[in-house]
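Renewal narrative, Specific Aim 1. Our central claim is that a sequence can be written position by position from structural information alone. The example that follows is taken directly from our test logs and has not been curated for this report. It begins with the structure tokens describing the chain, in the order in which they were read.
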């Protein structure tokens, strides 16, 4: 299977990957978006389908509201004795483990340890029957960010049995921001793969030892070099059924988030050298048969809400109702879109696309329903009180326990004396523009072309919403469909 990087345009931040037989499974960070910890499946490491989520909701009251930059950071996925495991730390709440016999779910949530400051956990089910965990620390919580600790776990992997051992101190090697460790065992050696140096300027380390608790030798095995792939690190190492080894990692591309690349791994002098001579490749061949997988983007809401959608907080049943076809979004109270848990969004799966949303608003005073591109600077187009209203929002994070400072302003308003409207959001080259009308063939542009921005450790996120800006429950909006077209097949708008 020939491929070109990136293999995934979606913002699958901090990916981890495993193989079970001929099947590969991937998970990634979700932060405040729920359901979280997406589970993707592939057979060629290039084409992926989403099959579920490990976390249907987060088991803390805090996440009943948006908590940008908090939530699920850098998970790991493993399979052991017929059971799948996803481990993740919420940096304020502690260590969770999710278990399932079927990777599509259902998954059971286990609260393993109440601790603040741990991040990026990964278990090792060792060949001698013992179970271990490696993790890093968040400087914003623990005051350190370049140490790795290893702990002994119970046989079922659901209890931490000791205070841990320091196995790597980046200060001794000039490494800063050592994080995202992944734990492996191969040919009698224990391995920790971890990034260092920060997201964009960083690089990938391999640490090896004859003993789980160290000491570990260090080597840089992947770095940007002369390529245009910044910060090639933070990912998972996996072999395929033929015995070839691979490293799947992310690249930060600003408003598009952290997209996934695939590197071949070759063993040289006992070390896993990645890419071509330790630098990322732009294309390659897995040698595996092509797999017909893809992540959906469009939705007619025929039977359920599509698997691609995530709320901005733990979902509330009062936010929506399935119409089959169609989706009814109730106008729940919200002071602004950044703080609205009912914002329903998905990951961009292409760098250029049109998203069309057909809706009908049955509104009360203060109700607004429409389409938006979320980020620290975000834009929304809504139907509100017989007008089409284009808004700009700006959010500034103040601290993990302090609500963000958000300001919204109106960019443009047009009269619209109908309940029905079609909105289009066009994305190209990191920018977004908006259109409205009564049918896809005839749409009017509104506003300007705006630069998209990333959000709380995420790329910009396209989505739909209904809310009441007066602090009460209002009416509702019926979403007939959301249709996403990669590229721009219809240029009649504008």
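The sequence written for that structure reads:
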């Amino acid at each position: 299977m020939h491929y070109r990087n990136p293999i995934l345009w979606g913002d699958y931040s901090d990916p981890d990957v495993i193989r079970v037989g001929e099947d590969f499974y991937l998970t990634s960070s979700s932060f405040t978006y729920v359901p979280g910890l997406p589970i993707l499946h592939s057979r060629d490491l290039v084409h992926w389908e989403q099959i579920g989520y490990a976390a249907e909701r987060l088991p803390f009251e805090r996440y009943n509201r948006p908590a940008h930059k908090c939530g699920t950071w850098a998970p790991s996925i493993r399979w052991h004795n017929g059971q799948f495991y996803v481990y993740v730390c919420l940096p304020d709440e502690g260590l969770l483990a999710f278990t399932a016999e079927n990777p599509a779910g259902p998954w059971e949530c286990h609260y393993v340890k109440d601790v603040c400051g741990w991040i990026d956990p990964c278990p090792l089910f060792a060949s001698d029957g013992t179970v271990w965990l490696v993790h890093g620390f968040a400087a914003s919580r623990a005051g350190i960010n370049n140490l790795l600790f290893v702990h002994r776990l119970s046989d079922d992997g659901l209890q931490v049995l000791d205070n841990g051992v320091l196995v790597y101190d980046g200060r001794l090697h000039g490494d800063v921001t050592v994080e995202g460790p992944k734990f492996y065992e191969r040919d009698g050696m224990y391995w920790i793969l971890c990034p260092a140096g920060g997201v964009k300027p960083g690089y990938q380390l391999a640490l090896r030892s004859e003993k789980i608790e160290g000491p570990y030798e260090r080597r840089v095995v992947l770095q940007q070099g002369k390529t245009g792939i910044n910060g090639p690190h933070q990912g998972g190492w996996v072999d395929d059924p033929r015995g070839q080894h691979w490293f799947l990692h992310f690249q930060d591309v600003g408003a598009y988030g952290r997209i996934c690349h695939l590197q071949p791994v070759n063993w040289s002098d006992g070390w896993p050298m990645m890419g071509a001579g330790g630098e990322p490749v732009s294309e390659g061949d897995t040698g595996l048969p092509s797999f017909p997988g893809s992540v959906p983007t469009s939705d007619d809401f025929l039977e359920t809400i599509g698997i691609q959608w995530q709320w901005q907080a733990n979902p509330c049943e009062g936010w929506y109702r399935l119409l089959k076809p169609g989706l009814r979004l109730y106008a729940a109270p919200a002071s602004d879109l950044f703080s609205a848990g009912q914002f329903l969004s998905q990951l961009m799966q292409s760098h250029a696309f049109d998203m069309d949303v057909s809706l009908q608003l049955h509104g009360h005073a203060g109700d607004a329903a429409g389409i938006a591109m979320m980020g620290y600077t975000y834009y929304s187009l809504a139907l509100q009180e017989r007008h089409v209203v284009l808004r700009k929002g700006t959010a500034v994070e103040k601290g993990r326990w302090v609500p963000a400072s958000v300001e919204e302003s109106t960019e443009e308003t047009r009269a619209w004396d109908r309940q029905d409207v079609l909105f289009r959001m066009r994305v190209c080259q990191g920018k977004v523009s908006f259109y409205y009308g009564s049918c896809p063939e005839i749409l009017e542009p509104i506003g300007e072309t705006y630069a998209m921005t990333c959000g709380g450790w995420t790329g910009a996120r396209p989505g739909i919403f209904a809310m009441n800006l007066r602090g009460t429950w209002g009416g509702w909006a019926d979403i007939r469909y959301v249709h996403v077209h990669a590229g721009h097949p219809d240029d009649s708008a504008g």
